[in-house]
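not sure who needs this but someone in the group chat was asking about Iron-dicitrate ABC transporter ATP-binding protein from Knoellia sinensis KCTC 19936 so here u go. i didnt clean anything up, its just raw.
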Amino acid sequence: MSATLTAESLSLAYDKCTVVDGLDLAVPAGRVTAIVGPNGCGKSTLLRGLSRLLSPTEGRVLLDGQVIGELPTKEVARRLGLLPQQPIVPEGITVLELVERGRHPHHGLFKQWSRDDESVVAAALEMTELVDLAGTPVDSLSGGQRQRAWVAMALAQRTPALLLDEPTSFLDIAHQIDVLELVRDLNAREGTTVVMVLHDLAMAARYADHLVAMCDGAIVAQGSPDQIVTPTVIESVFGIAASVVADPTTGDPVVIPHRRKRDRT
């Protein structure tokens, strides 16, 4: 189920304003990658470029060695799933109906709904603990439940690559952990190549195998959490001084930011 995803000399822009400029990235296949960096640095823009939602002004994105912009839309949807930052919920749709939409890319002109489809949808609902809410309208769910419903739809799509744009936004700490544990479980079970944008460095270090640190539309550093979550990289990317200690339970790096001094008048 793993896929390869590569950006070569990739530049991305909005209204001729360049956000990502000449970026090269090789996403580790079968691993969980987290893109981190300050607000406005180009993280979500990069994810849009990797998913083909935003066409490059220069360079290209390769999915399994093929230029993603030249592939049929349905073929891309069978190989790459995307959970955007603020997905729009169709009015009145139930959890089950939303999750079933994840199977649409696998249906051709003559292919009917099958037992395999039912099995995949059921497994996605079970993995996200939404079985009891299958008949509930999505717009009546809590924020955490709604996010899990969208993740379930992405799981039902059963793609070798999955891109997640800030999947823990607006969630409390317990629901953040639920979603990220789910992502790790998917990667462990299926070998899915996962790329996600995260704001929380501690969560990124704990749940990702590979970190990509961005600033001003460029990659500043990339590597394992131990290589990236360091005082030097944090200061160069976020512009703050911080200490890094090891979590006494897991050994994962934990960031302790220093107070920023403000001028007093």
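also The chain has a mean pLDDT of 90. if thats useful
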